[in-house]
UniProtKB/TrEMBL annotation:
Gene Ontology MF annotations: ATP binding; glutamate-tRNA ligase activity; tRNA binding; zinc ion binding
Taxonomic lineage of the native organism: Bacteria, Pseudomonadati, Pseudomonadota, Alphaproteobacteria, Rhodobacterales
Subcellular location: Cytoplasm
Protein source organism: Jannaschia donghaensis
Region forming the signal peptide: none
Protein name from the UniProt record: Glutamate--tRNA ligase
Length: 471
């Protein structure tokens, strides 16, 4: 008994149309394909479906590439342009014509519409049935014609879907779709099938809005005697109200989330959990996602976008990121936002004390304001109220004690605590003027953390400035 043939290597693809921004749903589809390919040691390919020449633009193509790069979803091999393969698509259509699985149809648009109007009036199906389906070539007129698929009229077409289960379509509800237009250009349905076959795609993982397309595409695979890929149609992303995600729900494009300051790894984590699960795990690394991802974990119900969950995951990722990774992400974010370059020398010492309380990169940068600002510190309205005559006198008295203190957290807490006790004050009473002096704000990291980051000289200088300021 011979051994079973090994399974072919996994090959997945993402095939966006370059007609606008990179939708968050496209990003999730790309992520699922990338995870599945990486888990199985396979390939993740990129095809740009740019056959709509009127709407496809180089700028939109670059937006897609930038989105994939920012997300960290590296593709294998060269990028395939569907438009560049039009001759190959036409070749397959003519091969099907020669083999009898397709036929020429000379019906005009007016004749097709007349057929449908008559069918509507008679209460019949308006699915067009071409009168040219069985007309021999010798009787064909010398006129422009489309090439149509000779689809089966009886029985059913069954899509064995790894997510949806078996989905059955009655063949009498599927028409003889056009494969090649009368001007010789291929249709989307034909192009997708030919490209998937030629690229060796083993698994088609895409939105369930393509499920009906799968039935039609399966008929082309069968007509060409090509093996069908594994189908996996994933539910679409909905807004919090349960309706299909749109602009009214907020950000829908990947670049918008990048500009909002979410680290790419956080968005990857969140999108992976948006419709797929691994037990109760919410926070996980890329390595874990690759190890765990399988098609069986994808649910059949639409996932709902929840910005608060994304923010929570983003905060967890920021707290575990290295200083270098955070700085790199901040530089990328500031470039996108058109901000001035970040002073990494000043920021780096503050990262450790601000990242745990931050959920986005802008929040982290805002909490690190004290380290990035320069003397003289400008107080906002709320913090300025903390620098009254009494508070400035206490800061003036505190300064010489700090000059001689060991610059450690315990020593600093001891010095400030002793002075507060001598004044009959709680430690918290000194926090507000210290925050005002060190950061010019009321919401800051711990005053002792800020002192350690700023160092002795800068801390004392800021305290002296505040003590000598006029109320």
């Amino acid at each position: 008994m011979s051994a079973a043939a090994p399974a072919p290597p996994v090959v997945t693809r993402i095939a966006p149309s370059p007609t606008g921004t990179m939708h968050i749903g496209t990003a999730r589809t790309a992520l699922f394909n990338w995870l599945f390919a990486r888990r199985h040691g396979g390939q993740f390919l990129l095809r740009i479906e740019d056959t709509d020449r009127a709407r496809s633009t180089e700028q939109a193509t670059q937006t897609i590439l930038n989105g994939l790069t920012w997300l960290g979803l590296d593709h294998d091999g060269d990028i395939v342009s569907q438009a560049d393969r039009a001759d190959r698509h036409a070749q397959v259509a003519h091969q099907m014509l020669a083999e009898g699985s397709a036929y020429k149809c000379f019906s005009t648009q007016e004749e097709i519409e007349a057929f449908r109007e008559e069918a509507r009036a008679a209460g019949r199906s308006t699915l067009f049935q071409s009168p040219w389906r069985d007309v021999p070539a010798i009787d064909h007129p010398d006129a422009p014609a489309v090439i149509r698929l000779r689809a089966p009229r009886d029985g059913t077409t069954v899509i064995r879907d790894a997510v949806q289960g078996d989905v059955t379509f009655r063949n009498d509800q599927l028409d003889d779709m056009v494969l090649l237009r009368s001007d010789g250009t291929p249709t989307y349905m034909l192009a997708v099938v030919v490209d998937d076959h030629d690229m060796g795609i083993t698994h088609v993982i895409r939105g369930d809005d393509h499920l009906n397309n799968a039935a039609r595409q399966a008929q082309i695979f069968d007509a060409m005697d090509w093996a069908q890929p594994v189908w996996a149609h994933i539910p679409l992303i909905h807004g919090a109200d349960g309706k299909k995600l749109s602009k009214r729900h907020g950000a829908t494009g990947v670049e918008e989330y990048a500009e909002m300051g979410f680290p790419a790894r956080a968005l990857r984590n969140y999108l992976a959990r948006l419709g797929w699960s691994h037990g109760d795990d919410e926070f996980f690394t890329d390595a874990q996602a690759i190890e765990w991802f399988d098609l069986g974990g994808i649910g059949r119900a639409p996932a709902r976008l929840d910005l608060k969950k994304l923010e929570n995951l983003s905060g967890q990722h920021l707290s575990t990121m290295s200083d270098d990774d955070i700085l790199s992400a901040l530089h990328d974010w500031s470039d996108r936002a058109g901000r001035a370059p970040i002073d990494a020398t000043r920021l780096r010492p503050a990262i450790a004390i601000v990242k745990d309380a931050s959920r986005t990169l802008p929040q982290l940068l805002d909490r690190a304001h004290f380290a990035l600002t320069s003397r003289p510190i400008t107080q906002d309205d709320k913090s300025a109220k903390a620098l009254d005559t009494v508070s400035r006198g206490i800061l003036r008295e505190l300064t010489p004690h700090l000059q001689n203190a060991s610059w450690s957290r315990d020593a600093l807490e001891g010095v400030v605590g002793d002075l507060a006790q001598s004044k009959g004050l709680g430690l918290g009473k000194l926090a507000a003027p210290l925050r005002a002096a060190l950061a010019g704000r009321t919401a800051t990291p711990s005053v002792f953390d800020m002192m350690l980051v700023l160092g002795r000289d800068e801390t004392l200088a800021r305290l002296q400035d505040a003590a000598n300021s006029e109320s």
